[in-house]
Amino acid sequence: MIELDPDRIATDAGATILQRGDEGRPERAVIDSREATSGDLFFGLPGARTDGGRFAESVLAAGAWGVVAGPAWAAELASSGRHPGWIYAADDPLAALQRLARAWRRRIGCPLVGITGSTGKTTAKDITRSILPRRVHASPENFNTEIGMPLALLSAPLETEVLVMEMAMRGKGQIAELCEIAEPDVAAITNIGPVHLELLGTVEAIAEAKAEILQGLKRTGQAVIPVGAEELTPHLSDWLQTTTFGAGGDVHAADVRVATERTEALVSTPLGEAEFSFPFEEAHNLSNALCAIAIGTAVGIDPREMAPLTSRIQFSRLRGERVQLQGEILLLNDCYNANPISMRAAIDHLASMPARRRRVGILGGMAELGPDAPGFHAEIAAHARANGIGPLIGVGELAREYEPDEWAPDPLAGATLAERILGPGDVALVKGSRSVGLEELTDALRARLGEVEA
Questions:
Q1: Which fold has domain 6-91?
Q2: What's the CATH number of domain 109-312, 3.40.190.10, 3.40.1190.10, 3.40.50.300, 3.40.50.1970?
Q3: CB–CB of 319/285 below 8 Å?
Q4: Any idea of the CA torsion for 147, 152, 158, 159, to the nearest 10 degrees?
Q5: Which of 78, 99, 195, 380 has the greatest number of C-beta atoms within 10 Å?
Q6: What confidence tens digit (pLDDT) does each residue in 200-259 have?
């Protein structure tokens, strides 16, 4: 519940009340009229195709607590008097949503952690949410934009003790905008790499855009950054309190032991050390876990409080998911997204896995790499082959750049190809940029070959 009274909502959102409803409180904020139910506060956002304000009447008719819409839509709805509920007019409903989210974040008043990075930010968020021994509210799935993050904030209970928000970046100024809304106390950057080169041009420009999260900190804020991230050095202020993670950092792992679906390590932090047992085996996820532990350290939590909670770690869908198919075929379903950093890490993990027959790469293209995209794809293919991965199956137009052994134009055709090629004892990695839609391929293989329940 958003425990702000209706008049306070108007003030905080910068909106005008055109019709008053009951004196209760809204249960949640929504932007999709199809999801709006009794008790919801609907924001009619303008879009490229239509203005969400046109659906305000149907939302109130469905029993919504209230609506925030552009002045024309709100005035027309209020003058009709056909439906009860609060009607707010806002010149910019998106800005109203963001302002209200900031006000609610201030009302909760707990530390807020912002997480960004070229790769691993969702996984680091998932681990942070799991291991902090506090009442944690984290942004779900991909609620990491100028629309999604405010909705995530407004869904936080008042009794939340730590807020963990993922922050996405597709261009300069976007993370700064998110920081204006969230006002982070801790800013974590998982890594910097060649992601969104098509938009920003250079890795240095990417680092500058990611570093906006550091500029968004208060004077008492703390930064969590990877060891050796030289691209971030120009953006580290003298006053900034910094915790580093990784080999040789403030938070680092020693005596690392890896087994099937498990990694154990002694983790040292500025607040002490503890033995951790993580439910994964990938080396890149250990880096994400160290980032999460460093976040915990930044908010003053002893690692001995975090270590017993690793069993709660659950990753978001399509990230490193193991799918055992009939016929002794194992899929590593890591198709949420891809870039040169995450693709190389996934291939390294595949190469380290025991396989009775072959290690197969089912690879979609990597988007937004700019004019150097062919070179990045060629490097990934060479890295895969040098590590004994093969055959390589390319899916989608960009995947031609891998010069794969087999190629399919789309995910369903790729599933047909994979169904023919895969055999007993194979381990196959499925990975590509989100735009390729490789989840269709894995879903098709599950349906056609049958999944073995764990």
A1: 3.40.1390
A2: 3.40.1190.10
A3: no
A4: -150
A5: 195
A6: 778 888 888 898 999 999 888 999 999 988 888 888 887 889 999 999 999 999 999 998
